[in-house]
Specification:
With 200 residues, the protein is an alpha+beta fold. The protein has 2 domains: 9-70; 84-193, Four Helix Bundle (Hemerythrin (Met), subunit A) (Up-down Bundle), CATH 1.20.120.330. It has 5 helices and 6 strands, in the order ββββββααααα. The protein has helices spanning 84-98, 102-119, 128-137, 146-161, 168-198, and strands at 9-11, 20-24, 31-41, 47-53, 60-64, 69-70. A hairpin with a 4-residue loop joins strand 5 and strand 6. Helix 2 crosses helix 4 (146-161).
Length: 200
C-alpha cells in the first residue's frame, strides 16, 4: 500500500522571506527565529502545519493550523536553587500546563507543597493542610502568604477529586502560586548566597 502523497508540501532552504518563523523553542527555552523546513496546506490551501528547526539547539518543532506548538514551550518562570526532586516536580507541573493537562498540573502543584514541607522537616504522612501550616509555622512564608499558598492545596484537591477538569485559569494560577512559593523558599536564599559569595 502506497503512502499518502503530500502535493501541497513546500520545502524551504532559508532563501525566501517566509523561510523563517519567530517562536520560543521548547527544547532549549530560547526565543529564536527558526528555519522553516516545510509547510503543508490542505486542498483548500489552508496551512495545516509548519515544521521548524531551532538554530540554537537544532531540535525540531511543529506549528499546527490552530497555531498550537508541539512540543509546547514551558509556561511559568524558570527558577534557580531548587532541590533536585522539587525542581523535577516543578518542571513536570510546567510540562502538564504546556500540553493542557490541567488536572495533572494542579495535582503536581499540590504535591510540591508536600515536597517543600518534607524537605524542610515535616513528616511525610501528614495531611496537605498540615503541610501549609508547617511551612508557615517554620517561618518559610509570611502570614499574608498563607491564603494563596493554601489555594495551591485547594486547587490540587479539586483536580484530584472532582470529575470536572479545572479551568486553564485555575491551573495557571496554581502554577503561578507554586512558582512564587518556590521563589520565596528557595530561589531568594540561593541568590542571596550567590551574591554574598561574589561580593568584594
Amino acid at each position: 500500500m502506497s503512502g499518502r502523497t503530500f502535493q501541497s508540501l513546500v520545502r524551504y532552504d532559508g532563501n525566501l522571506p517566509d523561510s523563517w518563523y519567530n517562536y520560543r523553542c521548547a527544547h532549549c527555552g530560547h526565543d529564536v527565529t527558526g528555519l522553516v523546513v516545510a509547510r503543508h496546506s490542505d486542498s483548500s490551501r489552508i496551512e495545516t502545519a509548519i515544521w521548524l528547526l531551532c538554530p540554537s539547539c537544532g531540535d525540531a518543532s511543529i506549528i499546527t493550523k490552530k497555531k498550537e506548538q508541539y512540543p509546547a514551550p514551558l509556561p511559568a518562570v524558570e527558577l534557580q536553587g531548587l532541590p533536585d526532586d522539587i525542581s523535577s516536580a516543578y518542571d513536570e507541573a510546567r510540562k502538564c500546563l504546556g500540553i493542557l493537562a490541567l488536572s495533572a498540573c494542579t495535582i503536581m502543584c499540590r504535591k510540591i507543597l508536600m515536597h517543600v514541607a518534607v524537605q524542610k522537616g515535616a513528616k511525610a504522612s501528614e495531611r496537605f493542610e498540615e503541610y501549609v501550616n508547617y511551612i508557615q509555622e517554620q517561618g518559610y512564608i509570611a502570614p499574608t502568604m498563607k491564603s494563596w499558598v493554601d489555594r495551591i492545596r485547594q486547587l490540587g484537591n479539586e483536580g484530584a477529586h472532582e470529575l470536572e477538569a479545572p479551568s486553564r485559569e485555575a491551573a495557571e494560577s496554581a502554577l503561578a502560586f507554586t512558582g512564587e512559593l518556590l521563589r520565596v523558599v528557595y530561589e531568594m536564599q540561593f541568590l542571596n548566597n550567590k551574591y554574598s559569595t561574589e561580593a568584594p
